[in-house]
Amino acid sequence: MPEIFRFFGIRFFYFSNDHLPIHVHVKNADGTAKFEIKPVRLVESDGMKKKELRIAEDIIKENEDIIEAHWKDYFGDNLEK
Q: pTM value?
């Protein structure tokens, strides 16, 4: 599981065999969630509180370019996968 970064006890990562569209998984002590980027939107969550989801979403919005660049660096620039 390649980790992109951690903020406020929330881990932002993707799986090494992940798929398009570009998205990011988040995990904290309470649960997990998945967000797509471009545009940022919550896809699913399990156990994370609404406040934690809002914080994660804000962090993703502020770092959308970093997440996309990290994804492309790991999976390649070919978005047709």
A: 0.90
